[in-house]
């Protein structure tokens, strides 16, 4: 069972109206099946959220003020759930992982809402803005089975008002004076899908973050081709590696989380979390797979200029025979 199928089933369960009484063992069965079919030796349920990291305490500083939570039913405290993350590129454009949007191509679920500026899951924060999603597009070459080209864009129903806690992030600009194959000062963020008690229908109270080393494309491809890691590198992706002796992992439904690097004092968006690495949980199962936004610059620019243009192409489900 692919992550896209797991997410579709999760959204179906949440939208069915039983989220308030949904038992962990229901999602356990789904996730256990995913683990077995993915070849994991240890079939314990994966833990949600960035683990081995820290809580984001100040959401009103870069890069955290560009974080977006993709929520279902945000106005219902008993049913609301953040199932993926995103990053604000402009007042009305969000980038996320393609897997986060894929279920909505064939699944009539609850209205999807982008929540920006949220500091604490249980409260309506002063800086928090909830905006409905007007439209979304997944990259036309996205592969829902393999996970290649795992990126999507969200057009908000209306632009948000910017403030200290709600700011778009700068996109990555390569430094011509730097020849290093690894960016050292990078952070990953995510809301995850579990609180401290492991309830998959609830979220961590605060977004989480952790520092990683981000390997560039050429070295990532080399490491993958040599079998250095068991984690396969997807097309147009990079490896993010935790620091030595760090337990940091991205976990189930941290997809779409921000991967930002500090370049000469500026935080720049290098990618989004495309694939988690916490199977089996609590152990290192390889690097985190990051969608390399640099490879999609032309598509993002086209969609940013005109979301309805022919140049802003979108993935289409294969026609059934």
Task: Please tell me about this protein's structure.
α1 (3-18) packs antiparallel against α2. This protein has 321 residues and is an alpha+beta fold. The strands form 2 sheets. A 6-stranded antiparallel β-barrel has the order 9-10-11-14-13-12. The model is unreliable at 13-48 and 193-201 (pLDDT under 50). The protein is built from 5 helices and 14 strands. The chain has 2 domains: 3-46 and 62-168 and 299-305, Thrombin, subunit H (Beta Barrel); 170-293, Beta Barrel (Thrombin, subunit H). Helices cover 16% and strands 27% of the residues. Keywords: Disulfide bond, Signal. This is Peptidase S1 domain-containing protein. Residues 50-305 form the Peptidase S1 domain. One of its GO terms (molecular function) is serine-type endopeptidase activity. Belongs to the peptidase S1 family. CLIP subfamily.
Structural class: alpha+beta
Query: What name does CATH use for the topology of the largest domain?
Result: Thrombin, subunit H
Question: What is the CATH superfamily classification of the largest domain?
Answer: Trypsin-like serine proteases
Stretches with pLDDT under 50, minimum 5 residues: 13-48, 193-201
Overall helicity: 10-25%
How many E-type strands? 14
Mean pLDDT: 78
What CATH first level of the largest domain would be assigned?
Mainly Beta
**Mass-distribution shape:** globular
- CATH architecture classification of the largest domain: Beta Barrel
SS strand fraction: 25-35%
Q: Rg, please? A: 18 Å
Secondary-structure element series:
HHEEEEHEEEEEEHEEEEH
Number of domains: 2
Largest sheet: 6 strands, antiparallel, barrel
Which sequence of strands runs across the widest sheet? 9-10-11-14-13-12
- Terminal CA distance reads 22 Å
Tally of contiguous helical segments:
5
């Amino acid at each position: 069972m692919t992550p896209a199928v797991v997410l579709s089933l999760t959204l179906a369960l949440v939208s069915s109206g039983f989220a308030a009484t949904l038992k962990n063992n229901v999602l356990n069965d789904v996730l256990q099946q995913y683990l077995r079919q993915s070849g994991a030796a240890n079939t314990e349920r994966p833990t949600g959220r960035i683990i081995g990291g820290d809580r984001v305490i100040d959401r009103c500083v870069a890069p955290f003020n560009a974080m977006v939570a993709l929520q279902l039913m945000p106005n219902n405290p008993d049913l609301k759930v953040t199932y993926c993350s995103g990053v604000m590129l402009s007042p009305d454009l969000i980038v996320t992982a393609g897997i986060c949007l894929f279920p909505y191509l064939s699944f009539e679920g609850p209205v999807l809402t982008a929540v920006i500026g949220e500091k604490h899951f249980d409260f309506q924060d002063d800086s928090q803005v909830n905006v409905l999603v007007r439209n979304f597009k997944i990259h036309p070459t996205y592969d829902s089975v393999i996970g290649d080209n795992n990126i999507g864009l969200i057009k908000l129903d209306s632009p948000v008002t910017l403030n200290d806690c709600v700011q778009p992030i700068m996109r990555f600009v390569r430094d011509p004076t730097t020849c290093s194959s690894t960016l050292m000062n990078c952070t990953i963020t995510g809301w995850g899908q579990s609180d401290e008690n492991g309830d998959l229908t609830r979220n961590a109270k605060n977004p989480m973050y952790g520092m990683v080393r981000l390997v560039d494309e050429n070295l990532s491809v080399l490491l993958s081709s040599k079998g250095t890691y068991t984690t396969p590198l997807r097309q147009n992706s990079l490896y993010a590696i935790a620091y030595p002796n760090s337990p940091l992992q991205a976990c189930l439904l941290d997809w779409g989380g921000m991967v930002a690097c500090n370049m000469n004092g500026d935080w720049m968006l290098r990618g989004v979390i495309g694939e988690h690495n916490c199977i089996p949980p609590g152990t290192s199962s390889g690097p985190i797979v990051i969608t390399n936004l640099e490879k999609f610059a032309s598509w993002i620019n086209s969609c940013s200029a005109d979301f309805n243009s022919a140049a802003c192409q979108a993935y289409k489900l294969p026609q059934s025979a």
